[in-house]
Amino acid sequence: MTSSPSSRLPVREGRDLLTPRPLTLERAINPHAPGSAHLKLGRTEILATVSIEDKPAPHMRGKKEGWLTAEYAMLPRATTDRQARERNLQNGRRHEIQRLLGRALRASIDLRHFRNQTLYVDCDVLVADGGTRVASVLAGYAALHDLCDRLIHSGTLTEWPLVHTVGAASVGLVGDELRVDLDYAEDKVARADLNVVATAGGLVIEAQGGAEEGPISPEEYVRLLTAGVEAVGGLLRELERQL
């Protein structure tokens, strides 16, 4: 007897289809960075650091606000097989993720508090098991929170600069099942997937992704987006508990 397609789908252990993987966070992990965080989402691990340069980005000279840019890299043994260091490659995926991170994190902060300065958020993947870009958004936000907390306590800033709590979650259709926070085994067989970036209040910043095995219906897309926003809310509640 042959097995049905549904019986060959990746099996989840310890969580249902709409429950994200366990999230753990450690702040102030890097003694040299003014803001840093080490975040685990299941087996995916991200180290995020924030640096401040007292120099405006070229396109922000003369403006009333500063700028935030993000960089993303995957360490050679973040995956099962060694990969060449990404700084040596023209990697379109990496550049796409960096732009996503920058847009997401700029939405979280009032950059008028950093006039004539540039914030650099570096997200490095230590271990990859799916969802590295969404975990990087969460880690990057935690590192920014760490930075802002230090600036407030030192008296460098007198007003809290974070205006939105921002996070992200992956969501996909695996067979006919809607699943949130896909690990690698699920992601590689999903027939559609989205990376949803949203605020704790349920406002959407970005949805990135699409169908992998042919078109999906508008109703399926809306279900994915809605589930993604709800998953972001749950992840951010856990993140805020650990901040």
What topology emerges from the helices and strands here?
Elements (H helix, E strand, L loop, with lengths): L22 E5 L7 E7 L2 E10 L13 E8 L17 H15 L11 E10 L4 H23 L11 E9 L2 E4 L3 H4 L4 E8 L4 E8 L6 H25 L1
Parallel strand pairs: 4-5
Antiparallel strand pairs: 1-2, 2-3, 3-5, 6-7, 6-8, 8-9
Helix pairs in contact: 1-2
Descriptive report:
The protein is of the alpha+beta class. It has a single domain, classed as GHMP Kinase, N-terminal domain (Ribosomal Protein S5, domain 2, 2-Layer Sandwich). The protein is 28% helix and 28% strand. It has helices at residues 92-106, 132-154, 184-187, 218-242; strands at residues 23-27, 35-41, 44-53, 67-74, 118-127, 166-174, 177-180, 192-199, 204-211. Strands 1-2-3-5-4 form a five-stranded mixed beta sheet. Strand 2 (35-41) and strand 3 (44-53) form a beta hairpin. Helix 1 (92-106) crosses helix 2 (132-154). It is globular and about 55 Å long. It starts with 22 loop residues before the first strand and ends with a helix. The mean pLDDT is 93.
